[in-house]
Write a structure and sequence with these properties.
Blueprint (H helix, E strand, L loop, with lengths): L4 H11 L12 E3 L1 H11 L4 H8 L7 H14 L2 E2 L3 E2 L1 H5 L2 E2 L7 H10 L11 H15 L2 E2 L4 E3 L3 H14 L4 H5 L3 H6 L1 H14 L2 E2 L3 E2 L1 H8 L5 H16 L6 H15 L16
Antiparallel strand pairs: 1-6, 2-3, 4-5, 7-8
Helix pairs in contact: 2-4, 4-7, 6-7, 8-11, 11-14, 13-14
Length: about 270
């Protein structure tokens, strides 16, 4: 599993070194309805069927099942190999503050679903049923745009852009030990750049914990992830860094490497490999 902000960055470097990129804004905000419209177009869903879907009529036919799977893939809350990411799907719903049992009802519904099929072609049904657990139990679908975590290729673009801005080569970054990174201003600014471009960090507000967890927290208990991260940030914030890059480096690299699986070994591909 990919781990930590800089750990993630390093792995991306290994699989795609010297990637050209001209990305300007990398934060993606999308509404559920926008993703439905896009997937309907991609899958050639008829206007009549789309109108019914958008009005809340969810017929469990193959077309509807695979449309919802497409929306899940686009919104990063569904993966054919890891299944549903509940914390991401929950962001698309607005729960009733007076409904104290919505989470329990939703989880009971999810518990009754079959296991993830080994054949990814059979995932449309489970993707729809997982969505319906939230649709009928969790709350109302939101109309506003929600943060969508970047995929691996998009993270590669962020990495390449930030390396270009701060004049850092793959070879130079990979040659840095921990002490050298701690003393390298360019590396500090690289980490800050990644945080800003992914929306997980700003000089004014510091770490955006919700977005950090959305982007990097898959597979980890949200409460544990955030508790450990907040404690690390509290400890790191005691120091006066006097420099925005150094502050970002300590709050992102130092903290989020420590609360995720630490990458201890890297395999560098031969230069001739794709």
């Amino acid at each position: 599993m990919v781990c930590g902000v800089v750990g993630t960055v390093t792995i991306l470097l290994l699989v795609s070194s010297k990637l050209d990129c001209s990305a300007k804004s990398n934060v993606i905000l999308r509404s559920f309805d926008e993703m439905v419209l896009e997937c309907a177009e991609l899958m050639s869903i008829t206007p009549l069927k789309l109108t019914a879907l958008r009005s809340g009529v969810l017929v469990k036919d193959t077309e509807t099942k695979c449309l919802l799977r497409c929306v899940g893939v686009s919104g990063r809350f569904w993966n054919d190999y890891t299944g549903l990411r509940k914390d991401i799907l929950a962001r698309y719903f607005l729960a009733d503050a007076a409904d104290a049992q919505n989470v329990n009802r939703t989880q009971i519904c999810l518990n009754d679903l079959p296991a993830l099929p080994q054949d990814s072609l059979r995932c449309c049904n489970l993707a729809l049923e997982s969505f319906l657990c939230f649709f009928y139990n969790y709350g109302n679908l939101r109309q506003d745009r929600i943060f969508v975590p970047l995929d691996q290729l998009q993270l590669q673009h962020v990495m390449a852009s930030c390396m270009d801005v701060h004049q850092i080569t793959t070879e130079h970054l990979m040659s840095q030990g921990e002490e050298e990174m701690d003393a390298n201003d360019n590396v500090h600014c690289l980490v800050r750049c990644i945080g800003i471009k992914t929306g997980t960090y700003s000089d004014r507000d510091g770490v955006n914990m919700d977005l950090v967890y959305a982007q990097y927290g898959e597979g980890y208990c949200e409460a544990d992830f955030k508790t450990k991260a907040y404690e690390c940030i509290r400890q790191q914030s005691v120091r006066n860094y006097g420099d925005p890059c150094k502050r970002a480096y300590h709050l992102l690299y130092k903290c989020f490497e420590n609360v995720r699986n630490v990458i201890t070994e890297y395999e560098i591909r031969d230069s001739g490999e794709v």
